[in-house]
Write a structure and sequence with these properties.
mainly alpha
């Protein structure tokens, strides 16, 4: 979960910031500064969320974050599509991530036994 989830959140943080840059120029915000500060804030939240993926509530936090990011489509309509793509990637990361983590741990243990 940590490997795939962190990849999704890391790339998504960049896309979210770019979304707010678009929102700052299309008239969704009264001030470009406000849009950029909010974009940077949500980008930092996405990056900080990578650190909590190992906790039991980490996947739930990431799912809530995905809903919030899809809701950005109200500001920039294309984010419904882009956020939806990342939501699907998040679902796949949660679904298949534990298997990947288990295989990586097994491979590391096998490597140490050699």
């Amino acid at each position: 979960m940590r490997v795939l989830g962190s990849s999704v959140l890391g790339i998504e943080s960049i896309v979210v910031f770019l979304c707010f840059l678009v929102a700052s120029t299309n008239g969704s915000f009264a001030s470009q500064t406000t849009a950029i500060v909010l974009g940077l804030g949500l980008m930092v939240v996405c990056i900080a969320s990578i650190g909590v993926l190992g906790r039991p509530w980490g996947p739930w936090w990431g799912s809530i974050l995905q809903v919030l990011i899809v809701a950005l489509g109200l500001l920039v309509p294309l984010m419904f599509v882009v956020g939806g793509i990342f939501a699907v990637l998040w679902f796949l990361a949660v679904k298949n991530g534990t298997t990947v983590d288990r295989l990586r741990a097994r491979a590391a243990a096998d490597q140490q036994s050699l």
